[in-house]
Design goal:
Blueprint: E1 3-9, H1 13-26, E2 31-33, E3 42-47, H2 52-71, H3 74-78, E4 80-84, H4 85-91, H5 94-98, E5 104-106, H6 114-126, E6 134-135, H7 140-145, E7 157-161, E8 163-164, H8 175-178, E9 183-184, H9 187-199, E10 204-208, E11 216-218, E12 225-227, H10 228-236, E13 243-247, H11 256-264, E14 271-273, H12 281-286, H13 293-306, E15 311-318, H14 325-338, E16 342-347, H15 365-388, E17 394-402, E18 408-412, E19 418-422, E20 431-439, E21 444-447, H16 448-455
Parallel strand pairs: 1-2, 1-3, 3-4, 4-5, 5-6, 7-10, 10-13, 14-15, 15-16, 19-21
Antiparallel strand pairs: 8-9, 11-12, 17-18, 17-20, 18-19, 20-21
Bound molecules: S-adenosyl-L-homocysteine (SAH), iron/sulfur cluster and FE3-S4 cluster.
The site of FE3-S4 cluster has 14 residues, from helix 1, helix 4 and helix 8.
Length: 456
């Protein structure tokens, strides 16, 4: 009988990609996906450490899993529980102390060793021993090389990790500690993985990296390394790959290659997530972001010159230690100047081990909430304006799956907006010119019929 594996994914797209790959690693060992922890033989929590809330959620979920195990009696005793991802990397065996239900802990660079770790954990478990494996070694290259080919149906839009880790050390951020030093995969295995995805029906690939535009993989011309812009050119040559995206970018790493790729590579979508974090030069400096407001504004100008109509998105942190009212207002000012199509914004969360956690001038929670509300109101207005600006336009939509209601299909516009329309599921996997007839705050409503009429 096949065994059931349930993976819960928290955090960013890198984790979503990693969860898929863990499924791939376990499939040859007789595991198939389960849709809940209730009947699973192995439960993996692929965790996120970026903010306190994300990390604490893991412990409340572990409490629920402990109850499920108990209720299942003897079958529950054999159910194995693993904590993977960034909380695992950051807390290591501390997790075993806080949550005795956990059988094994492993970091983001260790999941190719999962089968042997599981076998070890099962031996300990059967003997009723208290030993439990912990693997938080760093070596991203080894991990990528050791992955089996995926046997799962990838869908229409897929993620592909090209870079991992970060050397930037923004003073608030745990990623350099949980994901390790920057590492770029060589070009050849990336192209091979992309071709395999396209052969299995993928039309859109999003290149992933914590710092994706710092990509510099082996395999460029003349034995040189290849930049992200050059990699995008190579990917664009793959027949059948209609759309390319990448995330997340660091402003200081947007080089000329990449900006000109936006002007010249047709499949590269006119949407860019480019986190700025703050609109105050003083705060940016204490954040160690290594860019100024002026630099960011100029960069946006260059990008928009290269690709008119480019939609921008960003991340913001409010209530960074020492942030004054005026400095916060500078962030609002920057938002007004740029005009974002979408954005994520967060209250500063003090993360253990990062310099910002112990800086003077920690901002009270209530003030952080107030600033977050004000910023989100402004960003929301901009998102709605961007969405309503699409009404009446005809946009190419890549349809990805059936919609929530019968007879509906949903997909994405070039600007990553979800679009739903009445249409035949035969259109899934195709890019269809779609007349946008309505806009909500988070999605667009398209009409394929009108479009077909216009074409008659
Ligand atoms: N590599 C990306 C972002 C990674 S984390 C970049 O360079 O921008 C995603 C977002 O989480 C960040 O952009 C930041 O806005 C937010 N974030 C990171 N650490 C945080 C913290 N300690 N408190 C609040 N938000 C944080
Ligand atoms: Fe974190 Fe991004 Fe800064 Fe790296 S560049 S430290 S991932 S916020
Ligand atoms: Fe979270 Fe780790 Fe991603 S901390 S945001 S899962 S890199």
């Amino acid at each position: 009988m096949p065994k059931k594996l349930f993976i819960k994914t928290y955090g960013c797209q890198m984790n979503a990609y990693d969860s898929q790959r863990m499924m791939d690693v376990m499939a040859p060992h007789g595991f198939e996906p389960a849709d809940s922890a209730e009947n699973a033989d192995l439960v993996i929590l692929n965790t996120c450490h970026i903010r306190e809330k994300a990390a604490e959620k893991v412990y409340s979920d572990l409490g629920r899993i402990r109850d499920i195990k108990r209720e299942r009696g003897p079958a529950g005793a054999e159910m194995m529980v693993a904590v993977a991802g960034c909380v695992a990397q950051a807390e290591g065996d501390e997790i075993l102390r806080r949550a005795p239900v956990v059988n094994m802990v492993f970091g983001p660079q260790a999941y190719h060793r999962l089968p042997e770790m599981l076998a070890r954990a099962q031996r300990f478990n059967a003997r009723g021993g208290r030993e439990r494996p912990v693997d938080t070694d760093f070596a991203a290259s080894e991990k990528f090389d050791a992955l089996p080919e995926s046997q799962q149906a990838p869908g229409v839009a897929a993620f592909l990790s090209v870079q991992e880790g970060c050397d930037k050390f923004c003073t608030y951020c745990v990623v350099p500690y949980t994901r390790g030093a920057e590492y770029s995969r060589p070009v050849a295995p990336i192209l091979a993985e992309a071709r395999r995805l396209v052969a299995r029906g993928v039309r859109e690939i999003t290149l992933l990296g914590q710092n994706v535009n710092a990509y510099h993989g082996d395999g460029g011309a003349d034995g040189k390394t290849c930049s992200l812009g050059q990699l995008i050119w190579r990917l664009a040559e793959i027949d059948g790959l209609a759309r390319i995206r990448y995330t997340t970018s660091y402003p200081g790493e947007m080089d000329d290659d990449l900006i000109s790729a936006h002007a010249e590579v047709e499949p590269l979508m006119p949407y860019l997530h480019l986190p700025v974090q703050s609109g105050s030069d003083r705060i940016l400096d204490v954040m160690n972001r290594r860019h100024t407001v002026e630099f960011y504004l100029r960069l946006v100008e260059r990008i928009r010159r290269a690709r008119p109509g480019m939609a921008l998105s960003s991340d913001f942190i409010v209530g960074f230690p020492g942030e004054t009212d005026d400095e916060f207002k500078e962030t609002l000012q920057l938002v007004r100047q740029v005009g974002f199509a979408s954005a994520f914004s967060f209250k500063f969360s003090a993360r253990p081990g990062t310099p910002a956690a112990t800086m003077d001038g920690q901002v009270p929670e209530a003030l952080k909430s107030e600033r977050l509300l004000a910023l989100q109101a402004l960003l929301d207005t901009q998102r709605r304006a961007f969405n309503s600006g699409c009404v009446g336009r005809t946009l190419p939509v890549l349809f990805e799956k059936p919609g929530r209601h019968a007879g509906q299909i949903t997909g994405r516009s070039p600007y990553l907006q979800p679009v739903f329309a009445e249409g035949d599921t035969a259109l899934i996997g195709r890019i269809v010119r779609t007349q946008i007839i309505d806009a909500g705050s988070n999605s667009l409503h398209g009409n394929l019929h009108l479009q077909a009429k216009a074409a008659e």
